Each structure stands twice: as structure tokens, then as C-alpha cells.
Amino acid sequence: MKFKYYHTVWAMLLVGWFIAYVDRNLMSPIVTYMIQNKIGFFANVASPHAVGGMLSTLFFAGYMAMQFPAGYIGDRFGRKPILVLSIIWAAIGTFLTGIFGKTMMGLLGTRVMTGLGEGCYYSNDRALISETTPKDKLGVGMGISFAGLGLGLVGASIGGAWALNLGVKLWGPEEGWLFPFYVWAIPTLAVAALMWWLIKPDNQKVRGEGELQFEYSYKKALISISKYAFVFFILIMGVAYAGAVLNVGDVWVSVMILLLALGIMFYIMTSLGKQVGPVFFNKNLQLVYWGALPTLWSLWFYSYWAIKVIQDAAKSGISVSGVTAAMFGLACLIGLPLMGKIADSFYKNGYGRKPALILAMGLHALFIFGLAYYLYIGGQSLLILGLLVFFAGVFLFGTWSVSFALTTDFAPAALVASAFGVWNLIAEIGAILSPVVSGAIRDATGDWVAPIVLNGALMVAGVVCIMLIKEPVLSAVQSKGSESTSEAKSA
Description:
Blueprint: H1 5-25, H2 27-37, H3 48-65, H4 67-77, H5 79-100, H6 104-118, H7 121-132, H8 138-171, H9 179-198, H10 204-207, H11 218-246, H12 250-271, H13 273-280, H14 283-314, H15 318-330, H16 332-348, H17 354-376, H18 382-410, H19 416-445, H20 449-467, H21 476-490
């Protein structure tokens, strides 16, 4: 196979996802350590798991808020500038977490800031792949590049635990948990530099299509992102502070933040409706968006709480639990390319990609319920826990290869980044609520069975959404003709 530019794009965006997910998920081993050892503000809280989940909720509040604005700005000023700026922003936010993270509000503020920066990545990353990859290879391309997400979870589970243990040895238990944020900020900056060097500027001919005026500009991209980020930071931290003052509880703060995010979406729909209506009001796209919500709920249940789930079940240490939980992230190496390949095969043979998505989501739901049952009967085997987590990961990661390709199929060419922005804006409702709601249920029931059953029920609801999609499919002859055209364009 001849190496082409879209392979470079896949590889570079994979590395970007890896470092972004390490940075965002460092809190998983750190929160587990702080709860277990009653460190800092975890020393005197009645609901430690709910508080731990709240830290993730605030990150994703910022992350979710930037989804559509970043896609819209990328449609106007270029994918590459947004991607590079997003990784630089993540490096700065991660470093500042180490400086200001010792107080509760300092930690919340720096996690919101990091989330605002990382929230710019997804919509432009997916859109860049769709613009550079042949259509018949789109599922594989989406899957391979997104494998960085799973590898980043492995990096956070194992590398984060390693940096945490080293930090505790060097700085002691009260300060050492801040050490991983300093360590991982450095390679994050290196990735931003590598991305700036290897990714080409946007193809202005492609980017100039549609109603939006296109101008390739780092400066204008940064100014536009900063304006949105400043407003969202004030709003999100205002809600968090008000919740703390009023003592309304962590779950209700999350609900307030969710309502804020939905208000942002409503504002966008009313102020930019004519320009972006095709990505908001398309029935098939809406079903893809809402079908993706439970997959993000599941992702952030497993990636945030898997170490604690395994530690509670097997009575193991953080390092052993982290290695076992890392099986979930490693599953991406199979799930993403496998389901992408299956979806592309279905597409080429005239069946469309929808059946592949139903298959992946259905199998993921089975392994969710399998984990709930194993915990219900008191299972403690690290091997069985690891296998249940691994196969759940295979099919969860596999859902995104197909969902991203479907989004590209249904979205107008000039608004692909905007469509992915809406995809993540809606799907991240799951990421906002999952850690804190699951943690609160764990505090209330004393075990993880009920939160896992809720996860499975939501996944079944997502399958119903996907089943309602009406996907126009090509005949086998048309699909082969489309494949030949795509190959010619990419040559």
C-alpha cells in the first residue's frame, strides 16, 4: 500500500488524541488515591464519589460548551490552527492544574480551563479526516485516528499512576498528587509542535465551499476561541460557585451545568439557525447525535471509575487496578479499526453503515450487563474483571468508527465540523452526568451494580435511536463505482 497524506493525518491526530486523553483522565488514578487516603478536600466529605465525579463534570462542562463554537470557527478559519491551539491550551491548563489544584475551587477552575481548550479538538479533527480521506476508507480512518483516545486512557491509568506514585515519594502524600500534571504538560507541548510541523494548511478550495466565508488565520482563530472560552468559563464557574454557596449537592450542580449547556445550544440554534440549520434540524443527524449520548456516558463511567470499580471488587492496590482498568483503553486497538472495517464493508456491499452501529452498541450493552451480574454475585477475579472491561471496550470504541462515518454521510460538506460539534455537544451530556450520577448512586447503594445497570439501560435506548435512522444505501454496483472515484481523487 502506497503511503499517502491522509495516513499522516490519521497518525498525527491519533497522537493528538493520545496526549489529550492522558491530560484529561489523569484525575482517574488521582481521585481514587485521594478518596482512599482522605487527601486534601476529600478528608471530610460525606459523598466522596459524588465529589470525585464532580471534578470530571466541570471538565466536561467546558469541553461540551466549546464543541459547536470550535467547529464553526474551524469552518471559518481553518482546521489546523484550531487543532494546534487546542493542544497548546491543554498543555497550559494541565500545568496550571499542578500550580492551583490544591484548593477545591482552584482545581475546578483549572479543569474547566483545560476542558475549554480540549473541547476545540474533536469537531475539527473529525472534519479534517473527512476532507482528506477517501470515502470508502472513512470508517477505517475515523477508527485508526480515534485509537489515540483508548491509548490515552492506558497512558493515564498506567502512566498517571506511575507519576502519582513517584510524586508521593518525592513530595509526600499531601503534595505528590499534583506531580503528574507537571510531568504530562511537557509532552503535550511537544505534540502541538509536531502537529504544527506535519499537518498541511487547510485546502482552501475545499474549505471555500458553502455559505461561510473562509480565511486561514491562527490569530483570528485564537481571538474567536478566546472570546467564547472567557464567557463559558465565567458562566460555568459561576454555576459551580453558586452550587457550593447554596449547598445544593453535586448532582444538582451537574444538572444546572447541563441546563446551561442546553441553553448555549438553544442560543446557537436561534442566532445562527439559517447558516447551521442543516446540521441541527436533520432528523437522521439528530438520531445519530442522541444515539451517541449513551456511548459517552459509558466511556466516562469506565474511564473515570473503572480503577475504583476493580479496586473495590478485587481488593487490589491502585497500580494493579490501574493496569487491569487499562484493558479498557487497549481495546481500542481492536474495536475502532475492526468496526470501521466492518462498516465500510457493509457500505461497499449496499447495506449501509447503520447495521454495524447497531451490532457494536448491542454487544457493548451485553458486556455492561455481564459486568453488573459479576459484581452482583460477588466476583473478585482480576482476570474476569479485566476480560469484561476489555470486551466492553472493544465494542464501545467500535461504535464511534461507525457513528463518525454516518455523521459525515449525512452532513453538508461545508458544515462537517459544525455537525461534529453538535454531535459532541449532545453526546457530552452523557459525559457531564455519568461520573457524578454514577458516583452518587455508588455512595447511596454502597456498590457499583446499580450504576452499571443504568449504563446498560441507556445503551439499549441508544440502540433504539439508531434503529430509527433512515439511511439511503447504494447498490453494490454503485458502491464499487464510488470506491473507484474515491481512489482516483486520493491518488
